[in-house]
Amino acid sequence: MLESKITESLPTVFSKKVEIAETEKSFLAPCRDAIECTKSFPILNENSRNFSLEQNSSQANSKTQVRQINKSTLDLMAHIRSLQSITTPTSKSLSGLNLNRVIDIEEGNSNKKKIKKFIDFSLLKDPVFIFFSISNFLTSLGFNAPFIYIVDQANSKGIPTNHADFLLATIGISNTIGRIILGILSDMKRVNRLYLYSTVLTICGIATCIEPLFTTYTGLLTYSVVFGFTSGGYVSLTSVLLVDLLGLDKLTNAFGMLLVFQGIATLIGPPSIGILYDIFNSYSIPFFIIGILIGISGLMCFFIPFIKAFKQKN
What we know:
By secondary structure, the protein is mainly alpha-helical. Helix content is 72%, strand content 4%. It has 13 helices and two strands; from the N terminus they run αββαααααααααααα. The protein has a two-stranded antiparallel ribbon. α5 runs antiparallel to α13 and α8 packs antiparallel against α9. 23% of the residues are buried.
């Protein structure tokens, strides 16, 4: 096994001069045993004048050729010794086991680091993140309800469907405008983003609470504009506030976990409005409840600076 690997790794085919008894002639034959062949190579002496080379006897005493031959022989022997140490069965098996163990450990550590990087559960111990997540959860419970039920609410108050449909379009248009304007305001240096966010959510909650009092088309149209504009801040300012509260390095994990809270709330909110309508046969109480939830979520954000200061103090 060792000899075959060594023979395959040799860059050229080595030959040695052998004597054949039958013919009493000498010729160059392939060397079958690479190790013995190498050991038989002479280390030539630069001062020696008694060696001969078949190809060119006129340059036999050249010191340059002597150095080249000596160097080639020593390099070949070093190469064979390195191959012999590599292909030793015991060392090979041990090194293979150690290498596999190191690879397994590194892969395990790498996977743990990746999981820890994308799912940082330490955020659940952060009171600022928890408080902000609860606020978002309450907002998400009622955020989608007006989009879904505003037309039915208008129909229940005697407004024709062709007019009621425009209320939904009004919410969408004002929501888009609100995202842009509130985003621009949040970039101003003198504007506190957290207080801006809290204010628009509080206004949105109050408007939704008093929505059942509007019985005319003009009143519902006004509510649609106010709700759409103020709810735009909930969408456009959330990620910015996460950076302000937790830092840019935690944005990815914090926003991902926050979406979990929002997703659960979105799954619960609209069906709950439908259940309440079936119980009370009216959308007034459901709109009043979701208005309270959105208003509470906005008021909660006013207390986040105090929680952050208390956390830093401790």
